[in-house]
Specification:
Layout (H helix, E strand, L loop, with lengths): L1 H15 L19 H5 L8 E5 L7 E4 L1 E10 L14 H14 L5 E2 L3 E2 L1 E9 L9 E10 L5 H12 L3 E9 L2 E2 L5 H10 L9 E3 L5 H7 L4 E5 L16 H19 L4
Parallel strand pairs: 1-11, 2-10
Antiparallel strand pairs: 2-9, 3-7, 3-8, 4-5, 6-7
Helix pairs in contact: 1-7, 5-7
């Protein structure tokens, strides 16, 4: 629904002002699983601004945290469940590491992007109850901030995981931070939310395709904007008001009009 409104605004502007509408629409897939679609995109034209359609409650967001996904693996020795002392339980060992990581509270806090976070997202081990598991695997989702890079995060997880745990980097996406004082960004504020008072720049907790697309578009300013409450993402019965959707459509149309110099 959110991308549809950007498309609606762009096609409306192009229909009424075809000569001064210079906009590039980029469609991707696989953003939730690591921005695979954006990574495979070839040939987008360089652009001074990347407007990303994500739920921001129609507030202007100037970037987001980075994302680091790690796979942690422990190897043990199988044995019959009635003689566990003859085995080496990989599940128990990795589960202890998972609890240490989960319980750790001292992650860095960024003045702009907020706290770094670590989530134990998946855990797989064992075949059946009467076997000692000789292999266990978990996946971590780490959200990095400017003061806590992916290298910092990897070093921290190595310390918490303990010896005998193999750590593999699965996904490493850069965070995004746009300077709120850029003239182009001030113009975006004026067009998208002309009546809204200026506040502190906001940055999203989630990642977006901007992590990949910014480089492909020659590192433009990034603005994330769209209807929908961020707190409702991935919850049961996620919804968005029709009024917010219409508001976003009109705001994007105003933005395109401000670039073209026309009025409609």
């Amino acid at each position: 629904m959110i991308p549809y409104r950007i498309v609606a605004a762009a096609t409306r502007r192009a229909a009424t002002h075809p000569a001064d509408t210079d906009v590039q629409l980029v469609f991707t897939l696989g953003e939730e699983t690591g921005c695979e679609g954006a990574a495979r995109l070839n040939g987008p034209a360089a652009s001074p601004l990347l407007l990303v359609a994500e739920p921001t409650a129609n507030r202007i967001v100037l970037g987001h945290k980075g994302a680091l996904w790690l796979r942690l693996t422990a190897e043990g020795r199988s044995a019959h469940g009635s003689r566990p002392e003859l085995g080496d339980n990989a599940l128990a060992r990795l589960a202890a590491a998972a609890v240490r990581i989960h319980d750790h509270q001292h992650w860095p806090h960024s003045a702009t992007h907020g706290p770094a976070t670590v989530n134990v997202g998946t855990f797989h081990a064992g075949v059946q109850p009467n076997l000692v598991p000789d292999h266990a695997e978990l996946m971590l989702d780490i959200r990095t901030v400017p003061e806590f890079t992916s290298e910092d995060a990897l070093a921290a997880i190595e310390g918490l995981a303990g010896p005998g745990t193999r750590i593999e980097r699965v996904l490493d996406l850069n965070g995004v931070a746009t300077d709120p004082d850029e003239a182009l960004v001030r113009g975006v504020f004026d067009a998208l939310r002309p009546a809204a008072p200026d506040g502190q720049p906001q940055y999203a907790t989630y990642f977006t395709d901007a992590s990949v697309l910014a480089g492909k578009l020659d590192s433009p300013a990034v603005v994330i904007y769209g209807p929908g409450e961020p707190e409702q993402a991935h919850v049961t019965d996620e919804s968005c008001s029709t009024a917010a959707i219409s508001e976003a459509t009109e705001a994007v149309h105003r933005l395109l009009a401000s670039w073209g110099g026309g009025h409609s």
